[in-house]
Every structure is written in C-alpha cells, then in structure tokens.
Design the sequence.
C-alpha cells in the first residue's frame, strides 16, 4: 500500500483518518447498535472524547451505536459510564484515559495514523 502523501495538510489527513476509523468501527462492531441491539449502528461513539489525538482513531476507544443511543449517552453521562463499565470494564477505560492523557503534548502523525488505518481497513474488507 502506498504511504499517505506528506504534502497533504495534516487537518485533511486527520479528517480522513477519523472517517476511516468510524467506518472500521461500524463495520467490525456493527452492524447493529452495541447498546440497544435493535437498530443499525450509524454512529461511532468515542469512549474518551475525540479531542485527544492518541485515542481519537483507536478502534478500542469506540462503540458502534445507533443515533438514538448515541444521543442518549451524550446527554446522560451516568448511563454512558454504566454502559462502558459493562462493556469494556473500568480497567480498560482507565487504560484508554491514560493513553489519551499520556499523548498530550506528544507529537502525533496523522499521516502515519491514516496509513495504519488503511492496513486495518484492508484486513477487514473496508474500502479506504
């Protein structure tokens, strides 16, 4: 696979990496909502917020949810944390938080991340 061109602006590469990670999550963890298991998974919900580069496109940091469950969990943090605890456990949640926190002030290459995600996409049969 050809590496991502380093002449592309990092913001555009970040947006493409985010989109690709969402497709991978909804493909590998869907097709149904991981919360209600009643509706199709249309959203990629981040366990640790998208603001942190080191966990933004980490597949382990995401659930495939329907829009209704995603909206509910966005508005009801206690329900969200109960779902996270049931689904991945507190130790995994803490690991993701540490990864996000440890990545603050550390240079992150969106070009390298997009290349990594393209390999995963190819492995799971998702067009990048």
Sequence:
């Amino acid at each position: 696979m050809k590496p991502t061109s380093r002449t592309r602006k990092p913001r555009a590469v970040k947006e493409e990496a985010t989109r690709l990670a969402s497709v991978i999550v909804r493909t590998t963890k869907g097709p149904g909502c991981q919360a209600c298991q009643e509706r199709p998974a249309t959203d990629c919900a981040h366990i640790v917020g998208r603001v942190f580069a080191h966990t933004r496109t980490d597949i382990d940091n995401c659930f495939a949810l329907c829009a209704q469950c995603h909206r509910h969990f966005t508005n009801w943090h206690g329900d969200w944390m109960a779902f996270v605890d049931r689904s991945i456990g507190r130790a995994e949640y803490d690991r993701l938080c540490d990864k996000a926190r440890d990545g603050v002030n550390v240079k992150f290459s969106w070009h390298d991340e997009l290349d990594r995600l393209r390999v995963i996409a190819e492995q799971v049969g998702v067009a990048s």
